[in-house]
Design goal:
The chain is an alpha+beta fold. Among the domains are: 5-91, Zinc finger, CHC2-typedomain (DNA Primase, Chain A); 100-237, DNA primase DNAg catalytic core, N-terminal domain (Alpha-Beta Complex), CATH 3.90.980; 372-429, no CATH class; 451-580, no CATH class. Helix content is 49%, strand content 11%.
């Protein structure tokens, strides 16, 4: 749905950013703004600022910044549309309904009804668990150490002894046979009609990333087969595009997601305080699932089973994660098989320690390759070293490759220069090894920023922070045309248009881009720190910034007419007066708190 700029602005202004962020971050008033520990990186000293007057936030530590929309998208991992709906509902604003074609409306209605049926089914299973019929399932969950709160949080249930009890329940709630036949909850044949797909199983509702139940997994009680049964794919469920637990993990404050194999692993990790765990759905990790995780985090810790099958699955998952731009690490749980077993035996503190010691995915791959070769035999040892060189040569980032090369040489006892020669030979000949891609890490800021870009950012910060004085002092000498950086020029055009009308909205300027990184960059423009101790230093710094802007403009100017030549001469005179100290621009000195 495409909303008008006026409607977006109305929704933004009707929601106080301090109230919204304050629901997730403990904020303390500090001067004209509020301060707290940044939710986007680990810190002990607060560097995260929220300004109620400007309706923006900015962290001087990691440089995250933006508006209330930016915060909900980054912290709560909402899409813009989800943030718009949430904020509009909070402010009591009605959003326009999207107009559908007949086909689109039919699909939308079908999806709505299927989601409603799945939600009712989840409630039914949860209810049965708490009755006498569900005693066996509840005993199993208790034996696995799950508390009532965990059972409620994940909506766990029990599917009963068989027959068509769920079918009859959903029919009583008004769902018709054609819809139920597509729900994935029943077996349907001409002779017997509808029968429940799940029976005598502990039920695990599978929500999508927004928390809507789209499918189920069932663990049989006793020796029945299969041990785990999952819903078939339906109109609302594609197992390759969803992850169990992501609806909860998407809001974690941890800087990573934990990827494990099964429902109980995810539930055990969450109940132990590791609220970042997710699992693939009865299938090997897919590219779509990796891309889904990349929307929320750039780092993933792999905790698959520690047996040979789990290690093989880990090796298959690593290149998929790397291809999605995710930095992967592998957690060693030995001698225990899986996270649930480990937590039962060792507890959360020991798990935290194992997470902190997670092995880099590339180094884990080298370790696993080493197990295929007999290190005591000179020939097989040499083959391992050649294979390692091929793996290293497949790393495209030269700096990362060299860092891995030094680490592998040290850990595996391979002469560094000999290994380097093998890698270089592989690079020249090409390598069959799978590529280990470089991964973005952290929030890149100001990489390669030129002196002119810094000057232009500083000028925009002066204009916004000291309006109207800075504008009045420079309006006849500096304009948006003097900004050379494409983004800074776009911000300058918006800012000058606002200043001409006599009112500045930094939040509105941040909203000129939908890209979260760009929004943070724009927020950073208005939070450039000016290291001055008094009014005289502020005036001198402001004058120097204006002079650098003029000087850069002079260097670029190519006057083609008399008016252009006259303008150059006037600027030159003004520059001479600035340099000699005969003219100084003035700003109102005000104490500021960071």
């Amino acid at each position: 749905m495409r909303y008008t700029d006026d409607l977006i602005e109305e929704v933004r202004t009707r929601n106080d950013i301090v109230d919204i962020i304050g629901e997730s971050v403990h904020l303390v008033r500090s001067g004209n703004s509020y301060k707290g520990l940044c939710p986007f990186h680990n810190e002990k000293t607060p560097s995260f600022h929220v300004n109620r007057d400007k309706q923006v936030y900015y962290c001087f530590g990691c440089h995250a910044g933006g508006t209330v929309f930016t915060f909900l998208r980054e912290y709560s991992n909402m899409s813009f549309g989800e943030a718009m709906e949430y904020l509009a509902d909070r402010a009591g604003i009605s959003l326009p309904k999207e107009e559908y074609t007949k086909e689109q409306k039919e699909k939308s209605d079908k999806k709505t009804r299927l989601l409603a049926a799945s939600k009712k089914a989840a409630g039914y299973f949860h209810y049965i668990l708490k009755t006498g019929e569900g005693e066996r399932g509840l005993a199993y969950l208790r034996k696995r150490g799950l508390a009532d709160e965990t059972i409620r949080k994940f909506g766990l249930g029990y599917s009963g002894r068989g027959g068509d009890s769920l079918y009859r329940y959903l029919k009583s709630k008004g769902f018709d046979d054609p819809l139920l036949a597509e729900s994935g909850l029943f077996r349907v044949d001409e002779k017997n009609g509808f029968s429940d797909l799940f029976w005598n199983r502990v039920m695990f509702p599978i929500p999508d990333a927004r928390g809507r139940v789209i499918a189920f997994g069932g663990r049989v009680m006793g020796d029945g087969k299969p041990k785990y049964l999952n819903s078939p794919e339906t109109f609302i469920f594609n197992k390759r595009r969803n992850l169990f637990g992501l609806n909860l993990a998407r809001s974690t404050r941890r800087p990573y997601l934990i990827l494990c194999e099964g429902y109980m692993d995810v539930i055990s990790l969450h109940s132990a305080g590791f609220d970042c765990a997710v699992a693939s759905l009865g299938t090997a990790l897919t590219e779509q699932q990796a891309s889904l995780m990349r929307r929320f985090k750039e780092d993933v810790l792999l905790i698959y089973d520690s047996d040979s099958a789990g290690r093989a699955a880990t090796l298959r998952a690593i290149p998929i994660l790397e291809a999605a731009g995710i930095a992967a690490r592998v957690v060693n749980l030995k001698p225990y098989k899986d996270p649930d077993e480990f937590l039962q035996a060792m507890g959360p503190e020991a798990m935290e320690e194992r997470l902190n010691r997670a092995r880099d995915a590339f180094l884990f791959t080298v370790d696993e390759n080493e197990k295929q070769f007999d290190g005591s035999d000179p020939r097989t040892k040499t083959r391992f070293q050649h294979r390692t060189a091929e793996l290293l040569a497949a790393v495209p980032d030269e700096l990362l490759r060299n860092n891995y090369l030094e680490t592998v040489a040290r850990e595996k006892g391979i002469p560094l220069e000999a290994l380097r020669k093998l890698v270089n030979r592989s690079l020249m000949n090409g390598t069959p090894a799978e590529s280990i891609r470089p991964v973005k890490s952290g929030r890149p800021r100001n990489a390669g920023e030129s002196g002119q870009q810094k000057t232009e950012k500083l000028m925009l910060s002066y204009l916004a922070s000291y309006f109207p004085e800075a504008y009045e002092e420079t309006r006849n000498m500096i304009s948006p045309e003097d900004f050379t950086d494409e983004l800074l020029k776009k911000v300058a055009e918006g800012l000058y248009a606002q200043m001409a009308k006599g009112k500045i909205s930094e939040a509105a300027l941040i909203g000129i881009s939908d890209d979260l990184e760009v929004q943070s960059r724009i927020a950073g423009i208005f939070h450039s720190r000016i290291p001055v101790a008094n009014g005289a230093e502020l005036d001198r710094a402001f004058t120097d910034t204006a002079a650098r802007m003029l000087e850069a403009g002079q260097a670029r100017a190519e006057p083609l007419d008399r008016e252009g030549i006259q303008r150059m001469l006037e600027r030159k005179k003004l520059l001479d007066r600035f340099r000699s100290g005969k003219e100084v621009l003035h700003l109102p000195w005000k104490e500021t708190e960071e």
